[in-house]
Amino acid sequence: MFKFQRVRKKIEAWCKGRIWYLRALLLIFFIYVGCRHLANPLYTSIFGGINLGIHELGHILFRFTGEFIMVAGGTILQLAVPLASAVMFIFQPDYFAVTVCGVWFATNLYSVATYVADARAQMLSLVTVGGGDAIHDWHYLLSRMHILSWDTSIAVFVRLLAFVSMWGSIIVGVWMLWIMAKHSLVNK
C-alpha cells in the first residue's frame, strides 16, 4: 500500500499547474471510443489504421524467428508498442500520456479479440504485406496449439482485458483532470 501512496503523490504533484481542459476534450473522445467498442465488436477507431500498420510490421520484424513466432509477431508488436510507449511516458514523466497509452492498448486488445473470435469462421477481410495469400493469424496459431475450438472463449477474455484497460485508463485520466482542475481553481 505504501508504494501505491508514493505513486499517487507523485502523480498528484505532476498534475499541479497542468492545463486540464484540452486533455478533457481528448478524454471525452476516449469515452466515445470506449462506448463504441462496447456496442460494436467490429468498431475500429482512429487508432485502427495505426494498429494495423504496427501489426503488419510485426510480421516483418519477426520473420526470421520461425513461422509460429512470425505469425504471432503481428499481435506481439501490436500490443508491445503502446506498452513500450507507456513506459517511455512514465520515465519522462507524462502521466496523462500513460492513460492515453492505456486507451491505445485497449483498442489493440479489442482488435485482437475480434481477430481471435474469427479464428474458426475466418470471415474477416485480411491484408498481407508483399502480396500472396493472406493467412488468418489466429486460425493458424490456435490450430497449431490444438485449441482452435477455444477461439471465442479466448476472445471473451481478451475483450475483458480490453474493457479493463480502456475504462481503467479513462477513470485514471478523469481523476488526473480533477486534480488539475482543482489546483487551477485554487491558484486563481
Describe the structure.
By secondary structure, the chain is mainly alpha-helical. The chain has one domain (2-114, 129-186). 74% of the residues lie in helices and 0% in strands. It has helices spanning 2-15, 21-39, 47-61, 67-91, 95-117, 137-144, 151-186. It is elongated, with a radius of gyration of 19 Å. The model has no long low-confidence stretch (mean pLDDT 93).
Short descriptors:
188 residues; 7 helices
Summarize the structure.
This protein has 7 helices and no strands. The protein is an all-alpha fold.
- Structural class, judged by helices and strands? mainly alpha
How large is the count of helical segments? 7
Q: Which oligomeric state applies?
A: single chain
Uncertain segments of ≥5 residues (pLDDT<50)?
none
Major β-sheet annotation:
none
Number of strands: 0
**What letter string, H or E per element, gives the SSE order?**
HHHHHHH
Radius of gyration: 19 Å
Mean pLDDT: 93
Strand content: under 5%
Give the helix proportion (percent range): over 70%
Could you say which overall geometry the principal axes of the C-alpha atoms support?
A: elongated
Q: Please, how many domains?
A: 1
How far do the termini sit from each other? 34 Å
